[in-house]
Amino acid sequence: MDLLRFSTAGSVDDGKSTLIGRLLYDSKGIFEDQLEAVQNASKQRLATGIDLSLLTDGLRAEREQGITIDVAYRYFATPKRKFIIADTPGHEQYTRNMATGASTADLAIVLIDARKGVLEQSRRHSAISAMLGIPRVCVAVNKMDLVDWSKDVFDKIRQDFLDLAAKLGMENIEFIPLSALLGDNVVGRSENTPWYQGPTLIEHLETVDIPKELSSDKFRFPVQYVIRPDLTFRGFAGQITSGSVKPGDEIEVLPSGKRAIVKQLHFFDRELPVASFPKSLTITLDREVDVSRGDVIVKAGAAPKVGRDLDAQVVWMDERPLALTRPYFLKQGSRTVRARITRVLHRTEIKTLSEIPAANLGLNDIGRVRISAAQPILLDPYLQFRRTGAFILIDPETNATVAAGMVAADQPQSSTDVVWSESEVSRISREVRNGHRGGVVWFTGLSGSGKSTIAKALEKRLFHDHRQVYLLDGDNLRHGLNKDLDFTPAARSENLRRAAETAKILVDAGFLVLATFISPTQADRDMVREVVGARDFAEVHVSTPLAACESRDPKGLYARARSGEIREFTGISAPWEPPVSPALELPAHELAVTESVERVVALLEARGLFADVQEPGAGI
Fold first, then answer.
1. Number of domains in the chain
2. How far is Cα 310 from Cα 324, in angstroms, rounded to an integer?
3. What are the tens digits of pLDDT across the range 379-425?
4. Phi, psi for 454 (deg, rounded to 5)
5. Catalytic residues
6. Are 384 and 440 contained in the same domain?
7. No. of helices (H) and no. of strands (E), the chain
């Protein structure tokens, strides 16, 4: 019999543990001592009957709260198939546990409470299931008894989930109406759903097709251990994660690229003529090749791409948010290398499934990041190679797993192909000639707050003081470099990213850059800070209140926004997030322009910007 691994997913209190308990109970998959223990525990919670959720909720805290906290694995079998179940938590707090339990599943059962429909956490778990590449999905609409077995309710939930699935790219979805508590359509067919002609849950689990592994030319064999009992034998032990291999095949060892011929395949005291996924075995080669734990053996001529830079989808699992300045360990299979996250490309907004700009990721966030590893790793796309395309990130200080990652199919151009060209004239040499350090003063505030007025006056003052200074204006960039961008949230974020990259180049040339951009969200400003570098960045908040800005309205924009002519206008129909801790706050509605300029100059002097430049300093 073949083996099906499946996991549960969905919101809290949808009945996942009860459903798994019902499957085990009705399929006779429980030992007598287990059943007796659950019956005794049920007496503390129920007047009569048995609480089937206790079959998987084994932790005391789970039983006390009536929730699932950690992943519970259970095994059972029917005459047609063997099963391994991962009962995963529904609480948002334990999303990382859900991702762990679902990572090896062939099928995901998404439970939806018929009374509540598709909730945010249902969407979150479905998004993670899709990101994990689980090939089959079964939507179990539970608690149908509490909606009088309504076909209309079932059909609406089915359509809502299909709309969600279309956005996630999910296919091969089965919908089953059931009651885990009563057992309807779980193992036995229900008389309460005469309008449903599909399989029961157990019938679907017994017959659903399990996708076959990839063909032999996609062979992957991560080396777990080098076996060297004596001078006459040297073998490489591990598990085939994809494809097949046989003696006589030419192989390549990654990342070194060394080649050899497979001599023998050893399985305990037997030799195998061929081996396929998921066989564990030992491989010997026809010649001495340097192979170590963490290397991957593949078919020669069909090797995957290897590189140090990669884009990946991640589920952030640590209470400490992602930090671009913090080093991590990247563990892919049995290979561990040092790595840094160099950029957060976007975060997935669960309610809308849209991709929004972000400077970092917090606990349970899902997003796409760019990573730079210290040594080459496999760049197998996760959706094609679930085992070698996956990795985890580890905090070297705490040894905690902070993220689960999946290598994206589309990768950035390798840094080995695009290399930063260093100038013969260094930045410090330019700063010595200028007599001051370079940096970015980032003026943020509402439209009409006075950012540009202050920045222009400051530029004139610094120029007359013989400083290398340049005013980088948002409107000016949209006349040329950014003229292809519209005013959607994504385009606005890209506008700021390009501005930040431009400012960074000017700073490298030794300039003091005065940048005036509304930059309405903290995430946008944090992104700019990361691009420029905190050492060279000073945020100035021109804090003129909205009412004062609107009374000025120098361009007539507020009037057009109030009339609906301009949509998504910051402060009116689009959000404005004031800086949390700017380097300087300027209430321009209360200060003369000259006073504002003096305060910025004082800030720069306090940070040592105009100190005599001899050696690299602390920046601004």
1. 4
2. 15
3. 888 888 888 888 989 988 888 888 888 898 887 765 445 555 667 78
4. -65, -45
5. 519
6. no
7. 15, 27
